[in-house]
Amino acid sequence: MLLTSDPGRNGDGATPPNSGIFCVLSAINEAALRATAVEGLHERVCSAGLESDKFQVVAVCSPGMVIGRIEIITIAGASATDVDEGIFTASNPSSPTDQGLMGLAYNSGVAVASNNFRADRRNVVWERPFKEIVLASVAAVPLRSEGRVIGVLVLCCTRPDQFDAQTLGLINRMAQNVSYGVERLERDARRQQAESLLRDSEQRVRSVLEGMEDGYYEVDLHGRYRYVNEAFSRLLGYSTEELDGLDNRAHQTPQMAREVAATFKEVYRTGEHRKAQPWEYVHKNGKVVRVEGSVNLLREPCGQCIGFFGMLRDITARSRTELALRASEEKYRTIVQSMRDSYFEVDVRGRIVLTNPAFSAMLGRPLEDLIGRSYRELQTELAADQLFEVFHSVFVTRRAVPSFDWEMLHQDGRAVLGEGLVQPVFDERDRVSGFRGTLRDVTERRRNEQALLRSEQRFRALAHLSNDWFWELDTDLRYRTLAGRGGVVPAARDKFVGQLVWETPLTIEAPGTWEMVRAQMEAREAFREVVMWRTLEDGRPYFLCVSGEPVFSNGAFEGYRGISREITKEKLAENRVRFLASHDALTGLPNRLMFSQLLADAIRNAQRDGASFAVLFIDLDHFKFVNDTLGHDAGDKLLQQISSRFCDALGPAPALARLGGDEFVVLLQDGQGRAGVAAVAARLLTAALQPLVLQGQECRVSASIGAARYPVHGEDERTLMKNADAAMYCAKDAGKNNLKFYSEDIRARSVERLAIESGLRGALERDEFSLHYQPQIDLATDAIVGVEALLRWVNPDLGSVSPLRFIAIAEETGLIVPIGKWVLREACRQSTAWRHAGLPSVCMAVNLSARQLQDELFLSDLAGVICETGLLPHLLELEITEGMVVQNPERAAQLLYAIKEMGVRLAIDDFGTGYSSLAQLKAFPIDTLKIDRSFIREILTSPEDKAITQAIIAMGKNLSLTVVAEGVETFEQEQFLREHKCDRTQGYFFSPPVCADAFASLLERHRGRE
C-alpha cells in the first residue's frame, strides 16, 4: 500500500514546521477532557492525529492476550488489515533486536523515534512487512496510568527526518495528555463502581435490618432518629414515618432519658461500644417496654462521628418471666423445705447438691452432713449399683423415671426404703447436668405390702388350684354375670347369661335333681356342693361343684350368687379310681376284687337256680423268660395282646379277669358240661400259642389251664379258686400248654408243693442243703479242668427233693437269694480246701439266679466270700442265663464288668435257648458258652440240633470263648463234639454229680492228665 501526503510548505510565508503538531496537541487535549470512556478517547486521539498532514498513520497499542505481544487497539489512517500485524510485535525484552520500536518504548518507558525507518537496524524485524510500504519516519511513545506503562502511541510519517527533539517533546506532551485522560476515565470508572457497590451494600444492609426481629436505630448527635427498622417501630407502636426525625427522649421517662443520654456521651467520649442496660421505653399505648441492646458510634466514611446506632431487644416478657421465676424459686424452696416427702438433687457425679429436712430426717443425718456426699456412701454396694442404673437410664433417655426404689442406710445402720421419682436436670446448653426427685419413706408400707402379697399369693395359689369361677343370678333366677379363670367360662358366659339356671345344659348328678335345687332356690335357701355336669362340644365331660346363697338388700331378695369349681379331673380320677378298684390297669380286665364279687354272685345264683358253672385258672408258660429277656415293657405288651386274644376267643358272655402277673381267670357258665369247658379251654390254648412280635423279635408263649366246677370241686369261692389253681399247676407239671380238671390226685400234688415251700423256709437253718460236683473234661487232654457245683436238698419229711421240684419254688418265693449266697460261699470254701489238700486247681462254676443279680449287695457279698474263703478269683466262674443279661443290658454290662474286674470268670449257661445276639454277646465280658443239654440230647438224630450246636461252637471260636457242652451222656455225643472242636464236655458219660470226697478222689485219679 502506498501512502502519500503533501510535502508541506517552508520559506517566506510558509507554515511553521510544527504548527500541525500544535493543532493535534490541542485536539488531543480536548479529547482527553471530553471523552467519557477509554475506548472513545483512543479513537478521538487517533482521529485527532490525522488532523495535521504531518502524520499519515496513528495507532494506540497495548499488551494483548499473548504474553510478550503488543496488539493494535485503535488505528487511524489505515485499517488494521492493511498493516501487517508483525509491525507491532514486541518480543521478549531480553532480545533487543526482536523488539522493534513499540517493544522498546513499552519495555523502557521512553519515547523512541526512527527518522530513517528502513535503514534503522532496530527495525530489522519489520523488513518483511515493509517491503511495499513507504514509511520513512516512525515514533513510539509510551502511555501511562498512575505511573505504569499501559500502552504505546504510534505516529507514522511518509517523509524522513520528521522527529527532531522539539517534535518528540511535543509528542511526549501529547502522550502525557492522553495518559491524563486515561487516568481520569479510569478513576471515574472506579468511583462509579465503588458507588454502585456501596449502594448495593447499603441496600443489602437495609434488607437485613428490615428482616430482623430485633430493633435497629440510628440517631444523630442530638438524639433525633435518622433511621429505624420495622422491628423498632413495632417495639414502640409507631410507624417509621412517625419516628423519623423525632427525639428519642420522647419515648422515655425523665430518669431513663438521663441514663440513655449518659450512655451516648460515654460512647462519644470513648469511642467504644457499650451495652445498654435494661432501658424502659413508653409504648404508644402507654405501657412500659423493657429493652436491652447496644450503643455504637455512627461515622461517615471519612471517620467523622455523625451520631449513634445500635440494636434493641424487647425483654418485657422475659423480665416478667424472671420476676415470676424468682418468685417461683422462692416459693419452690419454701415448698421443698416444708414438704413431707424427701427431696434431693444430685449432680452427674452422684454428689448431693440439695436436699430438704424430710430427707435428712428419713436418714437420721443432719443436712450439712448430706450436702456434697455421694449417694453411694448412703447405701449398700448392691443398692448403689441398682440406683446407678436408674440414673444412667435417665441420663441416656433424658426422660424421667416415674417410679423407682432407693434403699438407703439410716444413721443407726438399718435399711430405709424410699419410693419416688427421678427426672433429669438440664443446664443452659440443654445438657443433663444432674438429677432431682422426691422420695417417700415406704419401709413400713413395703413390709406390710410384702406380708399382704405373700397372703394374696397364697390365696391366689389356692384359687388357681381350685379353678373357681363366680356367678350371679337376678331375681328371676336368670344368670346375670359369670366371671373366672376357667377356660370354659367365656363360652359358658355366652350361653348362660340371660337363661334360667335350670334351662342351662347342666345336668345334676344323681341322686340330686333340678327339682330339688329349684325348690331350695324358690324357698330362698342356700345350697352346697351340688355336682353338675355337661358334655363339651369336643365330647369331653365337664363337671362342676356348685354352691350358692341368696342375696338380700334391706330385706329385699336380689338374686343368688355363688361359686362354681371345676372338678372334672377329680371326677374323672374318682371314676378312674373306681374303675381301677375293680379292673386291672394294664389290660382293663376285671381284677381279683371284681372277679371275687362276680364269683360270689355266680355262687348265689347257682345255689338259687340249682345250676353249675366252671372256673378256669390260666397261667402263661415262659412268660417269666420273655419278661426277663426282653424287659418289662415287652412283658406288659405281651399281657395286653394275650388278654385281647382271650377276650376274642371267649366272646362277650364269659367273665375274664386278670389276677396279677401272668395269671388270668375265667368264670364260665357250664351249660355244656365238661365237654363245653374243654372246648372253651382249647380256644384259649390256641389263642395263646399264636406268635407275637415284641421289640422286633418273634416270641411264643403257651398257657396252662386248671378247671374247677361248681359244686363238684367246691361250693365256696376260696375252695373253687384254690382247686382251679392246683389244677393249673398240675397242667404245668404235665408239660404245659394243656388243660387239667381238678381231681384228688391234683389235690395231693398241691399239698406236696405247699410242703416243699414250707420246708424250704427253714432248710438253711436246719443245714439240709449240700453240694454235689460234676467235672468238666477238656476234650483236647481228657483232663478235669473244671467243676460245676450243684445244689441238693434232703428234708427229714420229704426225703431227697429234686432240684426240678424245689428250685422254681425257691425262685418264686425269693428264697433263692439266701440259698444262692450259701451255695457260693460253700463252693468257694470247698475249692480252696481241695487246693490246700494238694489237689490240682480246677475252675469252680457256680450258677447265679436272676434274683441274686438284682440284689444291690451282690458285688459286696461276692468280694466278701472271695476274701473270706481265700479262693483265687480266676478259679471261680459264675454262670448266668441269656435272659439275665438281655433284660437290662446297661445294668448287666456294668455288673458283669465289675465282676470281671475282680478277676472272676463269667459263663452263659443254657446258651441257645434265649434271644441274645452276637452283637449283644460282644458287649459283655464273657469267657465261656455252655450249650444247653436240650441240643445235645438229639444231636445225632436232629439236623436242627446238630446245626445249632455247630453254630454255637463256631461262634465261640470266633469270639475266643471257651465252649462247654452240657448233658453229654454217650460216647457218640462226645465223639461228635470232639470232631467239631468243642472245648469241653460235662455230663453223665464221664461222671454224674458226686459229693466232695468222691470228687476229690476222682480228681486225684486224673492228676496225671492235667
Secondary structure blueprint with pairings:
Blueprint: H1 19-34, H2 38-49, E1 57-63, E2 70-76, H3 100-108, E3 112-114, E4 137-145, E5 148-157, H4 165-211, E6 215-220, E7 225-228, H5 230-236, H6 240-243, H7 254-270, E8 274-282, E9 288-299, E10 305-314, H8 316-338, E11 342-347, E12 352-355, H9 357-363, H10 367-370, H11 381-397, E13 401-409, E14 415-426, E15 432-441, H12 443-466, E16 468-473, E17 479-484, H13 489-496, E18 507-508, H14 514-522, E19 527-535, E20 541-553, E21 556-566, H15 568-582, H16 592-609, E22 613-621, H17 623-630, H18 632-650, E23 655-660, E24 663-669, H19 673-689, E25 692-694, E26 697-699, E27 702-710, H20 717-733, E28 739-741, H21 744-760, E29 769-778, E30 784-795, E31 799-801, H22 803-813, H23 816-836, E32 843-847, H24 850-854, H25 858-869, E33 876-881, H26 882-887, H27 889-901, E34 905-911, H28 918-922, E35 928-931, H29 933-937, H30 943-958, E36 962-966, H31 971-979, E37 984-986, H32 996-1005
Parallel strand pairs: 27-28, 30-32, 32-33, 33-34, 34-35, 35-36, 36-37
Antiparallel strand pairs: 1-2, 1-5, 3-4, 4-5, 6-7, 6-10, 8-9, 9-10, 11-12, 11-15, 13-14, 14-15, 16-17, 16-21, 18-19, 19-20, 20-21, 22-24, 22-27, 23-24, 25-26, 29-30, 29-37, 30-31
Helix pairs in contact: 1-2, 1-4, 2-4, 17-18, 18-19, 20-21, 21-22, 23-25
Q: What would you say this structure looks like, in words?
A:
With 1010 residues, the chain is of the alpha+beta class. The protein folds into six domains: 19-191, 2-Layer Sandwich (Beta-Lactamase); 212-319, 2-Layer Sandwich (Beta-Lactamase), CATH 3.30.450.20; 358-449, PAS domain (Beta-Lactamase); 467-572, Beta-Lactamase (2-Layer Sandwich), CATH 3.30.450; 583-742, 2-Layer Sandwich (Alpha-Beta Plaits); 775-789 and 815-992, TIM Barrel (Alpha-Beta Barrel). 42% of the residues lie in helices and 26% in strands. It is built from 32 helices and 37 strands. The strands form seven sheets. An eight-stranded mixed barrel has the order 29-30-32-33-34-35-36-37, surrounded by four helices. Helix 1 packs antiparallel against helix 2 and helix 1 packs parallel to helix 4 (165-211). It is elongated and about 185 Å long.
